[in-house]
Each structure stands twice: as C-alpha cells, then as structure tokens.
Amino acid sequence: MVRVLEGSAAGAFMASSWAELYRQDPQATPYQSPAWLIGWAQQLPPTSHLVVALCEGPARQALAALPLARDQGDTGRRTYALSTPMGEYVRAVGPAAENPQVAASLARYLEGRASEGRHIDMAGLPTDSVLAQHLMSTDPARPGRWHTSATDCAEIPLPLAYEEMSRSTRRDHKRRQRTWDELAQHRKVTYRRTHDNDELLTAYTVLARLHAHRWAGHTPPAGTPHTPGAPHWPAVLKRCGTSMAFIATLAVDDEIVAAQLCLTRHRRAYSVVPAIHPQYKDLAPGHALLRHLAHDLTTAGYEYLDLGRTVPGQHAYKDQYRPRWSKTLSAVSAPAPACLSVLDELVRPATELV
Q: What's the rounded Cα separation, in Å, for the pair 118 and 134?
C-alpha cells in the first residue's frame, strides 16, 4: 500500500523518520540523505510543496519512501523527484526499496498520477534499480506512457590503477604531472580539502565564482550539474555539514584554479559540482585536482570516487581514469488523453491512500 503525505505532513515525516529509512538502506546515496533532501525541500518555490510516497507493510511499518515535489504553478501540474537536477541519483529509500512488490507499488502510484493528467518527471533513476526497471517495462495496454532516455555515469575505483591504463593514457598522465612538478619548482602549488563548516562555505563561494567565470557568456552543455548560486546551495551545504560534504581545491600562489564539491557516504565520494579557472585551462587544472583528490581519498580509506552523470564531450576526460560505467534513466510521462476535472482537484485531500 502507498500512502501519500503532502506539505507539512510530508515534512514532519522526513524530519522524524527519514534518517532511519536512510540508515537501513545500504544502496542509498548522499542524494537520499535527510540533510540533503530537507535542505532542498526548504528551497522549493511558493508554487511547489513536498510529497512523500510512502510504501507500508501490513503492520503500517515503513518499507520504502520516494521523495517528490509537486508544482502547481504556471507550468501546470508537475510532479518531479525532489532535489533534481542537483541530485544526480534518484532512488526510493528504505529497507525494502529494492523489493519488486514495493517498487511495483511506487511505479503504480506514479503511473496513476500520470493517467490523471499530471506531468511526471523522474530523472536520475539508476537503471539497475527495480523502480527504474518497472518504469522502463512496457504495458501493452498503455503503450507510450513514458518517454525515456538514459545518461551515462562514471565511477572510479580507488586507488587509481595507473599501471592498468593504456600506454597512451599513462603517457598523458605523466606529461600533465611533469607540467605541475615543473610549475611547483618556482610557484606555490597547494591542494586542500575542507574539514569544517566555515572552510566549506568559504570554499563554496570561490567554487561558485569560478563556475560563473568559466561559463560567462556561454551556455553550459545540456545535462551538466545545476549551476551553483546563492542562497540555495550554501543553505543546503550548511545543513549537510562536513559529515557528508567537502570541497577540494587546487591553488597556484594562493589563487584557486580548480575546485570540486563532493558528498560522501560510507567509503564513496560523489562529485557534485566541479569548476576550473578558465585562465589556467592550458595547465589542465581539473586533471591535476582529480589526481590529488583520488590520492587523498585513498589515504582516507575511500574505495570509490563517483564522477556522476556524463554529458557529451566528457566521456574522453573520464575514460582516462578507467571508470566503471553505469546509466541512469529519465522517465517523463506522456500526455494523457483525459485529465482530472477541476472539481476532482478541489476535493482531493492533502493525504490520500492509493
């Protein structure tokens, strides 16, 4: 059974019960953490409100929950995954999130809302998740319900296995490393990773400035991480804190030339927003920072660095680190032939059983 919580009821559930669902789900990523989700729920515009689709067992125990947002603004009745496009991986959360029956119930809930004429937008579902597989399957009675597309994602095992890379790739890494070694002989080169909230928020200000400088007068490629900007990101990072967020930076003579925001869970780090100084692009500062970060994380006991979704033009860059490739699904509902009547919308309760 799926119980739908909306608005203040959804917020109360997330504040009181989400942490336990997250703790019980080893496959959940930082994008499903209560700090991240509550942070973005607090940034929803006035036309939107929080929705939690909660799947319960026979004794009303929480089996899994799916965090959503519903927008009733000028764009129409749109329901979408909470924190997208900032959050790169969308999953149901809970001890039974990957149970086929639970996932089928959540899929039926989404399909039911789509059949009512709601615009459902679920982007970032790992294709190996059971929920994604349900949405990808075709119901012969309802062909064309979902418009789907897939996005590549890259994850680097740590430590970096340079010896297993191709000869040409090793040569490229050595050439870039030699350039930075020579630079360090006559200029100060500094790598840092933030360890407290003040450092995190200060480094974020620099990262946002670099990102804006890099894309000034240009449009970032489609699918790139959401552009950082105040006050949303600082508010979310302050809530996440250093227990699950850090920013790594690389500086030349105290001028930061590359920065990378990451979230963490267990022994995985997830790259969220990278930025480089365009005036130093000939030095490949992104590669240099990534090499420092990979070594740092290995020393700290991390086993993977997830580089997230990969847009056209980024594959060659990430391929140089021998990543494990996976995919995420974007499922957008096709227009339904009939919508709910205005009266139906007026009488629908804030909390409903489906």
A: 19
List, in order, residues 6 or more apart from 317 with CB less than 8 Å away.
Answer: 286, 287
Contacts of 217 (CB under 8 A, 6+ apart): none
Residue 127 buriedness (CB in 10 A; 0-12 / 13-18 / 19+): middle
- 343 residue type, one letter: L
In degrees, rounded to 5, the angle at the alpha carbon of residue 124 between the alpha carbons of residues 123 and 125 is 100
Helix residue ranges, H only, the chain? 8-23, 34-41, 100-115, 130-136, 167-184, 197-214, 232-240, 285-299, 315-319, 342-347
Strands 189-193 and 352-353: unpaired
CA distance 94 to 237: 24
Whole-angstrom Cα distance, residue 264 to residue 269? 4
Look up tokens 């006035």; give the residue. Answer: 46
> What count of Cα atoms within 13 Å lies in the side-chain half-sphere of residue 137?
14
Q: How far, in Å, CA of 187 to CA of 222, rounded? A: 36
- Closest by Cα among 311, 334, 350, 317 to 151: 311
Spatial separation of the C-alpha atoms in residues 279 and 312, rounded to whole Å: 23
What are the C-alpha distances in Å from 312 to residues 89, 139, 151, 152, 267?
Answer: 18, 31, 10, 9, 28
159 cis-preceded (ω within 30 degrees of 0): yes
pLDDT (0 to 100) of residue 14 = 97
Query: Per-residue pLDDT tens for 56-69?
Result: 999 999 999 999 99
CA atoms of 220 and 9, how far apart (whole Å): 37
pLDDT in tens, 168-215: 999 999 999 999 999 999 999 999 999 999 999 999 999 999 988 766
pTM of the model: 0.89
The pairs formed by 213-217 with CB atoms below 8 angstroms and a separation of 24 or more are 213/277, 213/278, 214/275, 214/276, 214/277, 214/278
